[in-house]
């Protein structure tokens, strides 16, 4: 590693921090480099990739651009894995499509961790970090990325706060701090589990939005059948 003119860390590309992460591109285990979210979009800032936000890790080795003004969703996760892995009371994650991100620096300095298998190979879903300064960058899921917005330039401005404002909390019963912000608090995954009362901390039976929708659809189906009879 060496420092560039702006004081950002840069790697020569020949110092693999993880066995997949080097400047080689010809091995089967290097295929991730050609796929989103790691695919380098050509002409950065040009017509092919409209830059709305820029972000970087603490040491500057990893830098990226985002082409979407607002995340698809933004959430706080209170699960114990997030608490431990972020050294923080909860995780803040903003969901983007894999095509919305363009890594402009440090492509070869990414490190992975799969919390399920406790493995550092690129197996989805996994956590993605800067392999040098260890700043968490994002969680890579099978279809989406969950980006950590505190790396984004301008996130602590009115515009940044507004664009990345959370819609809900998840895994709230595992919390280490109470947050009374009036936003929906889910027992598990957002939209797929019962809500938890913000004041009492109690689970509210029958509030799972996914189950409610499925029940409505079943009842509607039965109603239609009756009409046909
Ligand atoms: Zn870094
Ligand atoms: Zn979590």
If you had to describe this structure to a student in words, what would you say it looks like?
By secondary structure, the protein is of the alpha+beta class. It has one domain (2-228): Metal Binding Protein, Guanine Nucleotide Exchange Factor, Chain A, CATH 2.170.150. Helices cover 14% and strands 24% of the residues. It contains 3 helices and 14 strands. The strands form 4 sheets. It has a 7-stranded mixed β-sheet with strand order 8-9-10-11-6-5-12. The longest helix has 20 residues, at 209-228. The radius of gyration is 21 Å and the shape is globular. The structure holds zinc ion (2 copies). The site of one zinc ion has 6 residues, from α1. One of its GO terms (molecular function) is metal ion binding. Residues 1-15, 208-229 have a biased composition (Basic and acidic residues).
Secondary structure layout:
Blueprint: E1 2-3, E2 9-10, E3 53-56, E4 63-66, E5 73-77, H1 80-86, E6 91-97, E7 101-105, E8 110-113, E9 126-130, E10 136-140, E11 144-147, H2 158-163, E12 168-170, E13 195-196, E14 203-204, H3 209-228
Bound molecules: zinc ion (ZN) (2 copies).
Protein name: CENP-V/GFA domain-containing protein
Organism: Sordaria macrospora
Biased composition (Basic and acidic residues): 1-15, 208-229
């Amino acid at each position: 590693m060496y420092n560039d003119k702006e004081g950002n860390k840069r790697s020569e590309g020949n110092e693999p921090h993880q066995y997949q992460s080097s400047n080689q591109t010809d091995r089967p285990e290097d295929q991730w480099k050609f796929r989103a979210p790691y695919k380098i979009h050509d002409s950065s800032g040009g017509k092919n990739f409209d830059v709305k936000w820029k972000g970087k890790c603490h040491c500057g080795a990893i830098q990226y651009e985002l082409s979407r003004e607002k995340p698809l969703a933004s959430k706080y996760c209170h699960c114990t894995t997030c608490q431990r892995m972020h050294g923080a009371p909860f995780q803040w994650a903003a969901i983007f499509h894999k095509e919305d991100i363009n890594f402009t620096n440090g492509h070869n300095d990414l490190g992975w961790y799969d919390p399920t298998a406790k493995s550092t190979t690129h197996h989805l879903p996994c956590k993605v970090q800067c392999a040098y300064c260890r700043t968490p960058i994002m969680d890579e899921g099978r279809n989406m990325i969950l980006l950590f917005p505190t790396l984004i330039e301008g996130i602590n401005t009115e515009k940044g706060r507004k664009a990345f404002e959370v819609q809900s909390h998840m895994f709230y019963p595992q919390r280490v701090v109470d947050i009374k912000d009036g936003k929906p608090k889910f027992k598990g995954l957002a939209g797929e589990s019962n809500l938890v009362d913000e004041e009492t901390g109690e689970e509210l039976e029958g509030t799972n939005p996914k189950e409610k929708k499925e029940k409505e659809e079943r009842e509607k189906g039965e109603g239609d059948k009756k009409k046909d009879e």
